[in-house]
Amino acid sequence: MTTVSSASPGLSEAQRKNRLFGPLPDVSAEAGYADDHPKRVGFFTDTSVCIGCKACEVACKEWNTLPMDDADGTLDAIGLSGMSYDNTGMLGANSWRHVAFIEQSRTVDLPMPGVGLPGARRETPDPDIDVREPDSLAKAQASVLNAEALAEFDPQTGHSADREIRWLMSSDVCKHCTHAGCLDVCPTGALFRTEFGTVVVQQDICNGCGYCVPSCPYGVIDQRKGDGRVFKCTMCYDRLTDGLMPACATACPTQSIQFGDLDELQARADARLATLQAQGVESARLYGRDENDGVGGNGAFFLLLDEPEVYGLPPDPVVTTRDLPAMWKAAGAAAAMIVGVAVSAVFGSRR
Amino acid sequence: MPGLGTSFGRGGATNTQQDLANSDCIVIEGSNMAECHPVGFQWVTEAKARGAKVIHIDPRFTRTSAIADLHVPLRAGSDIAFLGGLINHVLANDLFFREYVVAYTNAASILREDYQDAEDLDGLFSGYDPEKRNYDQETWQYEEDREDEVNEDSPGTAQAQEAGSQQESVKDAARPEAAGSGGPPLHGHGWRDETLQHPRSVFQVLKRHYARYTPEMVSEVCGIEPEVFLKVAEWVTANSGRDRTTAWVYSVGWTQHTVGAQYIRTASILQALLGNMGRPGGGIMALRGHASIQGSTDIPTLFNLLPGYLPMPHADQHDSLEEYCADAAGTGGFWGNKRAYMVSLLKAWWGENAQPGNDFCFDYLPRINGDHSSYRTVSDMIEGKISGYFLVGENPTVGHANGRMQRFGLANLEWLVVRDLQMIESATFWKDGPEIATGELVTEQIPTEIFFIPAATHVEKEGTFTQTQRLLQWRHKAVEPPGDARSDLWFYFHLGRLLRWKLAGSTDPNDRPLLDLTWDYPVHGDEQEPSAEAVLREINGVGPDGRALSSYMELKDDGSTTSGCWIYCGVYADEVNQAARRVPRTEQSPTALEWGWAWPLNRRVLYNRASADPDGKPWSERKKYVWWDEAAGRWVGDDVPDFEATKRPDYVPPDGAKAQDAIAGTDPFVMQSDGKAWLFAPKGVQDGPLPTHYEPAESPVANALYSVQSNPTKEEIRAPWNRGNPSLSEVFPYAFTTYRLTEHHTAGGMSRTLPYLAELQPEFFVEVSPELAAERGLEHGEFATVVTARAAVEARVLVSERIRPLKLKGGQVVHQIGIPYHWGERGIATGDSANDLLGVHMDANTHIQESKAATCDIQPGRRPRGKAMVEFLEEYRRRAGIDSGAVPIGGRAPVETS
Predict the structure, then answer these.
(1) Three-class SS state of A342
(2) Facing residues of B464 across strands?
(3) pTM of structure
């Protein structure tokens, strides 16, 4: 592998401006791979067909021999988290795939023909037969994550008579950013861009400095307690080099996790989004698909059925190094000013 | 599966999971498919992507509901009311597929004048015997054919004989499952009124029977709004007919009820009326609970069956092969060849020793003389009638209903063999079971000697799995089993070899059956592993030339052929292990006939003759599947035709035709005596010819339809260790249902012991609605204690709106509690066992317990410990007016006769 400095030739002025943020057509070439490098690969996670089976979590742990832990990342511990069916809690050093479970509910009028709708019935409530007391209803709604987003319910999901219930499931993973903050700040070179365009930690080089941890806009990369080194999804780099799919995508029974060439996945995702929107699922959206976002788009992107915050994802992630040029520019200006002031002071005093 | 067997002829899923992708509407009811069959669920998501409607009907909002277009939260135990409502909707609004119904079902058959319906007798059918709590089914028969002359061989006489022998109740123990492949024998077609107008026609009887199952009644019984019911009705009927098909999917959410077989019967009636049987994207998908459960009924682990659903001979009725085959002789359909199947089985087992002169060793077969099903056997153990027991891949102290009863049974044996992958609770109850803590069992006083024998896993042995859609798939051994672990095949082969060695030279005639067995499988390797392929070839069977047979149609009743399981005949056709075929999907048709092998004869969609109209033409271009090719003179299409390949659609059986020759060219249900799908079951179901709504044995609700509260034929075992909760009890006011989670496998031996699975569902929990939590003061994440007349268990509380209180007529609110049952004392993730809560109330057809609907109380906090638990439960029983549950140390309290 060759390395390139920021002064390497062959980049246009416009491309050079984009080195730390914005679209980047070829991340591997940017990292210095020769022209015959493989195409950039990625994950498209379509949460609209996720059934929350967690096969991805188990397959990932099996293949990567990750240790058991609880929802707080405590090694060799287990315990009920109480967060719906999620006992993994979050992505971390020991969980490189994490399925989030989000329970939502709201009162609805049924889209039914004819008269005598339950909604109409509720207008003249009979206290004797109303199973739901107002205060418990309010309590239930308050207990639902992000109640504001309930307005986004759509025909994609189930109805339970006069209550509409939604149970969102989504398998989260490292985003393998176009502009990876973790990679940019790693002082040892333990983190590197692979020929597939993914971002991988080399465990034998990582010294546990932890700089990368706050630099990840998604909070993915994590130090293992009692070990100190950082761990995260490698997109099964070892499998990729052998022509195999990542373990999670192989195990997913419903094709919620799709692996492939990133451009092909993006086209598939665009088509899927169009289909869902045509079916009236207006809340469907792609997340991490836009190469003009704060990280230049993701190698692992998602189709969501609600706001990203509902799934615990940042709404507007920005690579922590995006403002580096501006900061250096400001710093430079400040330095120049100091020099200028100093010079003028010296020369001024002579006057 | 008597529900499907009686209705259509074979007790297996009629379609494949892959075929669900062809459905226009999929109704998942009594199944949590996404959680319990996640891999097969991909075909549901595929159908949905193609625009199909997906409906999930279940008491709980599960991961299946999350993907469905509509979730219908009906009350546990009310499915017959719901499905009966759909039948009524279809009949009352003329939405049935008339041409299909007239030609392919028994709608036109005329019933006897003395038949009385549950509507006439307030919940009972004619023929009920209140003493024996069972039915004499004589009045359920078709009216005899008017043209029939009465002579010695006439169907009428045989029918009368058959009906007469039904009076002996013990005989019934074997009958229903015998319909697993081949409907119940029935003599004579009776006469038909194809205008469907005759008041005693099945069609009119059906119409009257379900007339009261209106949307309002459904709403009252099931606790759902009539609008939701009508939405389901609209989607299902709009997606059935010539151009469209709807599939029904069920699993143990239907079978584990005191009316389980009748749940499946109700769906069978509905699907037949809608013309969805035998067609792509239609059918009834029975999802079995484990990897090879279908296989374990095909080549059964059941007491009353022999391979291929041949009934186990009965001590009082089957002295000779001729007597055994008498009920099938002369009947229509492939069941008429019963003798050929049986003789071939006897030849496979006893080889050269089975000769016409000795009735092919028919006398060597064991006989049954009553009910020896699982729960009855456990109660026999408690009573000291059983000395030894094998537990193979079964953890009944966690996985079966009433764990306390199970442990008392195991604690009263002389010896117990446990073969498992892990040291499971059923092998360690003598030191760490809950009754050791309560003092009801004392380790030093348990006489049972327990042998734990480690078993090889599925990757450590070779052989077939028969999965849920009748598909046999061969598995190769990937690694050697560790240490002393061995395959089941190895264990039984060498056990048999040693027993025969010990008995060698014996002159006792009782030892002949064992000594005369063909027990000569080739072995290989250091561990002398028997060849699983040799066993599969024996199951397939060979002809007179010693070559593997290719079809059960080749089986003979003269001893010239062998077959260890007639329905599997063909799995080794052409001396090739057909189950090991793995042609990639890209290299074959979408039906994938070259992937594995499905019984019977590699047919993937059963009864597929019905995918064509009576003339043999496809009902529509869109649903084209198997049709008659006049030029070729045979049935052709995307699947192996489930019909004699060259039998013309206009074939009419000559008078006196038997077996398959009595099946007309327009009769797709070739295993049935009359070739028809049975809307009305004149035979084969113990608890009524038509499904009728009864409440579960334990219910918080009174039966809104009849004064008969629960199934009058349900089987119960009365003893201190199996007390029932009274229905409508204020002490046990809540309904609960038990279930599984994706993250664990049944009784947990294969998942609670693995860190990657244990961490995903680490603790026993119960799911309650916010309303119930408020009513009982339950806190999310804290402990609660669930109590029944059997046990009290503690679990964490998950408060969720996914659990919904149901509102019934008159303001009654029914709270349902969801309780997964995976936990026990051992492994990484431990907890109390939910199955301890359940009592044993059984379906008379299947002897399966009611696990999916029962009653309980729930209180915040942890359960009592030690002896305090005994008093705690006794106090609950006193308050509920139940007899004492106290037992002497060791649990040996006898069964009470009522």
Answers:
(1) helix
(2) B474
(3) 0.91
Q: Position of tokens 């967690």?
A: A54
ipTM above 0.95, yes or no: no
Q: Looking at residues A284-296, what average pLDDT do you find?
A: 94
CA dihedral B60, B61, B67, B68 (to 10 degrees): 70
Rounded to the nearest 10°, the torsion over CA A9, A11, A13, A15 is -140
* pLDDT tens, residue by residue, B196-240: 999 999 999 999 999 999 999 999 999 988 989 999 999 999 999
Q: In chain B, what residues touch A114 (CB-CB under 8 Å)?
A: 227
Rg (CA), chain B: 27
Residue A192 has pLDDT above 80, yes or no: yes
Which of B293, B257, B281 shows the shortest CA–CA distance to B83? Answer: B257
Per residue in B497-540, pLDDT (tens digit) is 999 999 999 999 999 999 999 999 999 999 999 999 999 999 99
Torsion sign across C-alpha atoms B822, B828, B832, B836: positive
Alpha-carbon distance of B241 to B236, in angstroms, equals 10
Instruction: State mean pLDDT over A312-335.
Output: 85
Q: Beta-carbon neighbour count of residue B327 at 10 Å?
A: 23
Q: Do A167 and B807 touch (CB under 8 A)?
A: no
Kindly compute the dihedral angle of the four CA atoms of residues A5, A196, A190, A330, in this order, to the nearest 10 degrees: 40
**What is the structure's pLDDT at B414?**
98
What is the rounded CA–CA span in Å between residue A149 and residue B422? 46
Question: Would you tell me the crossing angle of helices B403-410 and B374-382 to the nearest 10 degrees?
Answer: 60
**Would the CB atoms of B65 and A158 count as touching at under 8 Å?**
yes
Query: Is the CB of A89 inside 8 Å of chain B's CB atoms?
Result: no
User: Tokens 């309290």 belong to which residue?
Assistant: B893
Query: Are B71 and A155 inside 8 Å of each other by CB?
Result: no
Residues A97-150 pLDDT 10s: 999 999 988 775 544 333 333 333 333 334 443 433 434 433 333 333 333 334
How many CB contacts within 8 angstroms connect chain A with chain B? Answer: 162
Nearest residue in chain B measured CA to CA from A77: B759
For residue B53, CA distances in Å to A85, B35, B464, B806, B823 come to: 26, 19, 34, 25, 35
Which of A57, A112, A116 faces B760 most closely, judged by CB atoms? A57
Taking the Cβ of residue A72 and every Cβ of chain B, the question of whether any pair is shorter than 8 Å is answered with no
| Alpha-carbon distances of B532 from B393, B520, B521, B535, rounded to whole Å | 19, 12, 9, 5
Q: Does A90 touch chain B (CB under 8 A)?
A: no
User: Which of A93-107, B136-150, B541-555, B706-720 is predicted with the least confidence, judged by mean pLDDT?
Assistant: B136-150
B358 three-class SS: helix
